[in-house]
Please model this.
Amino acid sequence: MSGENKYWFNSSTGEVEYGLESPSIDRIGPFDTAEEAARAPEVLQERSKAWADDDAAEDNWGPDGAR
Model:
């Protein structure tokens, strides 16, 4: 999949960009629409919370140390 014809969220500027304008370290994506790209920070936050919740559930061995 080529990122040249996709939308990206620039984490440094907070702007949505079309194509490969910024350095890869600043880009989140690719996304099919500008609207999806604009939601990138919210999506990342939702996914981070879900991963943290999963990790916490996996780490919960109970009071006696057994699952």
Remarks:
- The chain has a mean pLDDT of 89.
- The two ends are 42 Å apart (CA to CA).
- Residues 7 and 24 are 13 Å apart (CA to CA).
